[in-house]
Structures
1.
Amino acid sequence: MIARNDRLSGFRARLTGAGLVVLVSASASLSTPRSVVGAQAAQGAPDGMALYGAGCASCHGSDGRGASADRIAFDDPLPDLTDCSFASREPDADWIIVSKAGGPIRGFSDVMPAFGEAFDDDQLQAIMDHIRTFCTDRAWPRGELNLPRPLFTEKAYPEDEWVWTTSMNAEGPGAIVNELLYEKRFGSRNQVEIALPFGFAEDSSTPASSDGGPASDWGVGLGDIEIGYKRALLHNLRTIFSFGTELKLPTGDSERGIGSAEFQIEPFLALGQILPGDAFVHLQAGGGLLARGHRESHGTAEHDEDVREAFFHAVLGRTFTSGEFGRSWSPMVEVLASTHLADGAQPQWDLVPQMQVTLNTRQHVMLNVGVRVPLTDADVRSTQFLVYFLWDWFDGGLFDGW
Ligand code: HEC
């Protein structure tokens, strides 16, 4: 875990008389924002740089790196707003909420003041536009594109997160499958991940018990471990488009139905699109290339490969916020289609209605609950209940910001 505070500990400041003077004069100029009025350009369009200078620079520094320790009167570390890895992640809307209502609204320090009285929304937006100039590398996709995560569809946005997903069959032989997923960004556009599935499955081949009731022989097994790579190829403020690939390793316990115990490569393309009214779409399309067991011929091992599967996922969702600064609720409907290509089989369709909700004040710990309903072959495929627990670890420790 790399918590924000560890990264920022270099900015620890000490309480000094001089710092207090700076702080007092900063807050005095806020309560009667004469400098703010002066920062308004002639036509009435707010001048973000001047407003930032008047309200924020005393602590955040005119260059965004944070005022030096001898100029501030508090101990709390200040973020480096020129660090793209930090500054690109949060959407404007979240930073405006923190600036309006103060640090504690998102579980941050109460040293970060509330400016809701001093600045209106247009002025705060102008300040955000100025803060956005501190990170000069446009390769970093903006936090606005970090849309709510569906249960199955891989997002286009690169992430730093832990996700624990549990799925359970509603009928048929019992199976509870868990997946622990770790995702880590590197550079401006890349992400690697590793997924460790493990499960408990009921062995349906066990003969019925002597009292005639259903036998229940549950076994524990490891699934197919997956490693993956993803890279954002294109992005603007509303759209992000990525390429990725996953490699499944044959570690699964196929006899218990947990994993297929075969090598599989799954290349895919993913798109995230912001729609008007806090609505959004995710699309993902890819193929499953299976490396079947190798044969010996002329003393060399040959892999018998073919494209076995093609899949398409589509998600439509919308985020609702309770109260102006509150919890986010994101209902989504996910459609999954997959087909085996080789044998001309019919495609299989599933519908997955679900709801993601942010759990804590900082909004970096979330839950998603959904149900996967088979639309085809419903007689042989079970309905599944799913839930995931997600921790965006870059935004703070698991127990921070509640
Ligand atoms: C009195 C000092 C002070 C002033 C003035 C101040 N800030 Fe802050 N700000 C802080 C501190 C301290 C933090 C770090 C809080 C934390 O990480 O717990 C912070 C954090 C932030 C963050 C980061 C939130 C995040 O997601 O990590 C933003 C954005 C921000 N301030 C914007 C502003 C803006 C805009 C202004 C001026 C309108 C401003 N601040 C004025 C002290 C200040």
Note: The chain has eight helices and 14 strands.
2.
Amino acid sequence: MTTNLIDPDIRKAHTLPSRFYTDEESFTDLVAGFEECWHFAAHEDQLSENNILPLEHMESLVGEPMLLTRDAVIRCLSNVCTHRGMLIATEACSASTLKCGYHGRTFGLDGCMRNMPEFEDVEDFPSLSDDLSSFDLKRWKGLLFAGSNPIRFNDCLEELEARIGWMPIESFQHDPSRHRTYEIDANWALYVDNYLEGFHIPYVHGDLHGELDYDSYSTELFEGGVLQIGVASDSESCFSLPESSPDYGQRIAAYYYWLYPGLMLNFYPWGLSVNLVIPLSVGRTRIVYHGFVWDHSKLGAGAGGDLDKVEAEDQDIVEATHRGVKSGAYDRGRYSPTRETGVHHFHRMLTS
Ligand code: FES
Ligand SMILES: [Fe+2]
């Protein structure tokens, strides 16, 4: 991959060449690298009612159908039956075993093959290869992360711990009514670019602009991610920060965390909105929302009050930008050194 394509000095740098958003080969190369990343799997509260949860998004992100099972422990297993390859679970459910719907092969929640009809005469059966493969799972405050061959998580979790470790994230409750799935006609990286700056808020999000103090909006970069902090306008909803918070004394309306490649953890006084950016093809992207509520009384207010409206406004912009970057008249732009440090950081990651 090209090195130093994006100048480290944002004042000198030119933005990502448009081929990164439009070219099949660049797309395939970048997405192949997702295998090495940790990805959000679920919040463990998603396993409170059902103890089997297929992770459809993992198939798109890393090419592996996976599922989570919970008994005494939570495991991440392959969702592919070891008989002839059928997917085992297609929706969340509760059961004491995993049973393939094709020919009835049954596995324990630990992935071990337990039973297979009509296999009495099969030699050397069962063997270890008849068990389901398992994948690494990482847990932080109730958030579960998985990957097919993850090596990079850098210091992301230490960053989150130091900043917002005071929040009782593990006790946030999954709210299925806040689940959304969108598909947009745009490259995934354009969706991320748009997320990584608040520069467009006054132009694109009239209502959100009223909730936030634009001049106090800040962006912090760290290895593997970006944090944007929205400060509330005078009367708007904000966190009650404990003295242990590095931001104690400020009127924080939202912590917007992005972790490479496409995980957005948006913390509001009411709880957490998780947004997953899932590339489907070079010009098509799925966006999945999951909501986890901390304080019901704060829903509907402040910067996280009407996420559907903000999302629709962003999608219109991102789809129009995708049409724009396909133009022969456009290749690269320049960055605002005050407002686009997050986008610059992301582009440096894409080209390193
Ligand atoms: S594919 Fe699962 S039992 Fe046959
Ligand atoms: Fe936006």
Note: The mean pLDDT is 95.
3.
Amino acid sequence: MASLKGCVAVVTGASSGIGEATARDLAARGATVVAAARRADRLASLASSVANVHAFECDVTDVASVQRMVDGTVAQFGRIDILVNNAGIGLTGPAVQVELEDWRRMVDVNVMGVLNCTHIALKHLVEAAAGPRGVADIVNISSVAGRKALPGSSVYAATKFAVNAFSDGLRQELASKHVRVSIVAPGFTKSEFIEHIRPDLLAKIRASLEAMPAMTAEEIAETITFCVTRPAGVSVSDLLVRPTEQER
Ligand SMILES: NC(=O)c1ccc[n+]([C@@H]2O[C@H](COP(=O)([O-])OP(=O)(O)OC[C@H]3O[C@@H](n4cnc5c(N)ncnc54)[C@H](OP(=O)(O)O)[C@@H]3O)[C@@H](O)[C@H]2O)c1
């Protein structure tokens, strides 16, 4: 697999789960990684335990915060070759029971967060693609829910359908500029994802969620690394990755 030495990668939502595992994996391939999320303590402990991972506190829903993170990355490391838009939340539950605020938060983080980071980092990605590596990467983390909406997760699914549509349009627009846009859509993956569901709703479904077949965050991180280590002339547009025993 190609080395990422000399590349600068920004991974959002890197304080736990898939984002943290991706920050570790990209750094192991030689990239300088900016790990961005809100929980500064978790980022600091990641950065202190992995060489080449640097913590940057950032709320992807806050444009000024994203601008500071992108400007800070370029000021400190000179470029952005890879953007992994991973930060996301799934506040699932029956429509008659969840709060409207939960739906708004999912749209803010899962859709606006992706748009904020992409819009602000884009000129740096285009510049990087014109450099010696000959390519730059945006990897957007979608979900199986981005292919099929299910009861209890209609708004989460809507946000991931939006990520897919944005990614495919952007991919076509950026093709001639050599900025690849990949969708990675995981099935059920062990992480802190379910812990954000409202406690009263989670209590009813925790046992069944914990019994479901699940992948590790590292297994999805490997898939993300696969996308960004293809030869410059190869773009992996869309990967759906399920636990073997997950049926839908
Ligand atoms: N786990 C699954 O089964 C599964 C399946 C399909 C898709 N996914 C997708 O995978 C991605 C990662 O989820 P995960 O499973 O690794 O869950 P996780 O462990 O809960 O990680 C979510 C990450 O998003 C960050 N985040 C949330 N709100 C943020 C904000 N406003 N600004 C910046 N960062 C924010 C969190 O950091 P802070 O709280 O520190 O900000 C955390 O690092 C999400 O996009 C999710 O939709 C997960």
Note: Residues 12-19, 37-39, 42, 58-61, 86-90, 109, 113, 141, 143, 186, 188-189, 191-193, 217 surround NAP (CB under 6 Å).
